Amino acid sequence: MKLFKVFALVCLFFFLIGCEEGATRFVPVNETDDGSSEITDDSDATDPTDDPTNPTNPTDDPTNPTDDPTNPTDDVDPTNDVDPTNPTDDVDPTDDEDPTDPTDDDPTVDTDVNPTPDEDDPTPLTDAEKCANAGGTWSSWGQKCYRTETCDPKPVNSVWNGDSSYKEYYDVNVGQWEPGPAYATQYGDGEPQPCQYVCKENYGPINNQCKPFCSAKFNGTDSMITIASEDAPSIVGLDSWTIEAWIKQSADELPDYQIYPVLRKGTSTSNPEYLLSGYYNGSQGNGYGLTASTYYSYQQYGNPKNNQVNATLNTFPEGWSHVAMVYNQETNQYGGGWTTYKLTVFINGNLAKTGNYSGAPTFVPNNEPLVFGARNSDRYFTGLIDSIKISNTAKYTEDFTPNALSADDDTIAFWDFSGNANDSVSDIIGTPTSIEYSADCKE
User: Fold this and answer.
1) Predicted confidence band of residue 217 (pLDDT cuts 50, 70, 90)
2) Where in the chain is the domain with CATH 2.60.120.200?
């Protein structure tokens, strides 16, 4: 019993000591603290959310002067530059903010408060979507983007040498359409290709057009057209005649001072019944030449005579040239009168050279073929011959302006080479060798 009383007295002693210490620490609110008190707590007894035992309260930051204890969303991230007037500020403390957003205070980053996707981080488009945006069709099998284009219109008198459309492909990595073919501007002479055309039969390509064949092309190697002697026109017995042609040669392909015939009646090495040559380089570089000749005998002497006229030019006539040889007899009254026989060469309508002979010559025919573009199996002409015409009259006796040739009432034979070697007046059949026909013609 005594032990219990001692224990109770000890407890009372310590209780009284504790009450006295608490009483000395209490300062009434209406009294001034003289600095001797030990008050260090700044907690607000009126704030039910203030817990002085919880220093990590997320709604209260004693170090932040802009802290708003009434805003439960403020200062989730105490390191962020907060706007206490913006209730949506810093909802996501990890977000990069948008400098164009006036409600966002950090211009260095972009905000995600706006639910629309970020423009600086779009979802990548698929190749098929890129193709569709470019107006193409996506081939999932070939993994290519393409569109179908229609070829430009083809010329009249032509047919397609391939498809009339083509596919153009889009490079989805580069973002541009690859160039297509040069459409409808080329003559297809090989394997069929899209947008290539070929001219119809007896038509040829000229300046992206298909025009009728109107000239024969001689390659200078083995090209020739042969007409049998019995079918060839003869000038024997005619008082006057004209042989003319339109020809086109290149100056760098001319032979050196040798006769390469446009036409020659006779395949032997001498004495042609008639001959008209193409251009050749003059002797010792003296300009250019062109030859016309006939073969006959003088009646009073009976000896054969080759009447040959060699015309010369200082300047080579580029492009198409009209060449003509004209045989004509003229009667002169001086001294009782006599007949002069003239063989005249005209080049592009200008009188180039004349050979005069008196007496009554007798032309000597031969039984050899008429050949265009060669002498026989040599002296091959290089170039184009548009047309050849033989008339039974002297068509030209003075300078004139030449025109494209056509048949008329004085025509004995006319070849226009419109896809064949046949004469259109007398139905003379020609046999071509290595001849191509062209739409390059004298207009």
Assistant:
1) very high
2) 215-438
